[in-house]
Amino acid sequence: MLLSVAILPVGLMSLIQNLNLSREAERSAEIALLGRTASAASGERALLQSALGSADALGPGVLDAMDQQRNCSDLMRNFIERSATYVYAGFVPLNGMSTCHSGPRSTAVVDMRESPAYEKFVNEPGTLVTSLDSGSDGDPSVIQVMQPLYRDRELLGYIAVALTHELLRSTHSISFGTEGAKIATFNHRGEILTADSGSGDSATDILPQGTELVSLLSRTETTFRDYSNTGELRVFTVVPVVPGLVYALGSWNPKIAGVGVLQLSRFGAVLFPVALWLVSLAVAYFAVFRLVLRHIGELRGQMRRFAIGNRDIAPPVLSDAPTEIADVSQTFHNMARILIRDEEAMEAAVAEKTVLLKELHHRVKNNLQLIGSIINMQSRVIEDNDAKRVLRSVQDRVAALATIYRNLYQAEHLDAVEADRLLGDIINQMVNVSVEPGSNLKVVTKLEPLTLLPDQAVPLSLLATEAFTNALKYAGKPEGEDAAWVRVSLTKAENDTGILEIVNSIGEQENEVEGTGLGSQLIEAFSTQLEGEASFGIEGKTFVMCLPFRIEVPKPSVQPDITNVVLTSAARGGARH
């Protein structure tokens, strides 16, 4: 758009110059057509002016011989015989009875009162050039030139000189470059005198459609476009042949007249600036695309690929880009290289810390298993059942802790523990150790996939250990069933809430084993750590322990604010990126 505004003055100047040239060319074409029309009618002009001069020259002779009929007729006849141009000459008095003429019966009196020429002269006395369908005494159609004759100031009549239409039409000069042109002449009264028309065509066919010839008198020395009476679009010119008396109308084909070229030049006057504007925009866009847009697009693609994780190597620097864009590309290359290096260092540090932490969990698990083995060895040398029971409960708790740490170092992510897998391992381990062979105790588990943070997984697993230990201890064979049973379920409810439920059957007689109350205290303490509240109760022939707890969702790490980070295009001398 800015480029369009910038080249607007140039385009306006070009438009104005082209329009001026177009107008000058149009005027030149008009002058050329007028000259061609005048040239085509030049022969007719010479004949008509000669006829007017001849009529004036016959006037004195007619005045001298007016009273001598034979001498006057001889004068007219001799004039016609000496001139091969005219076909009739005569004097017509105001009464219309002509006795002075060049007809074959020179002594006869010819009544001209019925002649259209006589009527026109009587109605409007003066010099007149008119067309007659037939001349005097049966002559073919002629053009008659009438010149009034005065004696002193008295109008006596008019002297008429006639020429044939064929003679006048034969003088229409159609030169090279005027093929298809047609010329018609008419007098000041709008009457057609001569017309170039083909065989079978009417003289009015070449005239402008719906236009009176009298109205064209005000358009002399001009050109105009209009449809002819045949419906063809043509170019017309009007020039005077005998000023005030006879005019020539030229009818031209638009192609020959050059009007199409004029229209094309006028159209080109507008088209050229528009084409110049479009070409300049195309060149500008191509230049901008080649110099800026394609490099920016390539640089944007490099940034996108780098942002989505394609960071094997730093993106290459644009080689054929302009200096400013190459500077930006170099800056991005340096930034990417620094980020790749730093990420590799961070990934190595994280991997190292992960290995160390897993090794720590592994060693804690080994130590706990060692403690459990020591407790087991100690319980074997003790014969007191109460002491063995206490050592067994401690051993179960240590084994549960060992299982937790085993799951931690085996987990792919150290910040997430699969609670369902952890509880399954603990329950299987306790069943294998606590349930005596041959016992009909059934253990049913329903553990849905649930991922917890280590801070929740540890108290949950210890709580499940205590509760499951109590369930195994107090599980009895209910009436009507084959064996005692224990059910453990871990489900996830709505609103990020987990539910641990341990249910055991109650026998016909209460279990006489008395507890120390430590398990209940531990369950209550672990429930507090989980921000839940464990509930206990007997429902029918079952004992139910239920613990709803809130699942903590890991919070996303806060991204550092990088809006104020400024990257230089290149490091200064001696500096390091």
UniProtKB/TrEMBL annotation:
<dbReference type="InterPro" id="IPR011495">
    <property type="entry name" value="Sig_transdc_His_kin_sub2_dim/P"/>
</dbReference>
<keyword id="KW-0067">ATP-binding</keyword>
<dbReference type="GO" id="GO:0016301">
    <property type="term" value="F:kinase activity"/>
</dbReference>
<keyword id="KW-0812">Transmembrane</keyword>
<keyword id="KW-0418">Kinase</keyword>
<protein>
    <recommendedName>
        <fullName>histidine kinase</fullName>
        <ecNumber>2.7.13.3</ecNumber>
    </recommendedName>
</protein>
<keyword id="KW-0597">Phosphoprotein</keyword>
<feature type="domain" description="HAMP">
    <location>
        <begin position="290"/>
        <end position="344"/>
    </location>
</feature>
<dbReference type="Pfam" id="PF07568">
    <property type="entry name" value="HisKA_2"/>
</dbReference>
<dbReference type="InterPro" id="IPR003660">
    <property type="entry name" value="HAMP_dom"/>
</dbReference>
<dbReference type="InterPro" id="IPR036890">
    <property type="entry name" value="HATPase_C_sf"/>
</dbReference>
<keyword id="KW-0808">Transferase</keyword>
<feature type="transmembrane region" description="Helical">
    <location>
        <begin position="270"/>
        <end position="293"/>
    </location>
</feature>
<keyword id="KW-0547">Nucleotide-binding</keyword>
<keyword id="KW-0472">Membrane</keyword>
<keyword id="KW-1133">Transmembrane helix</keyword>
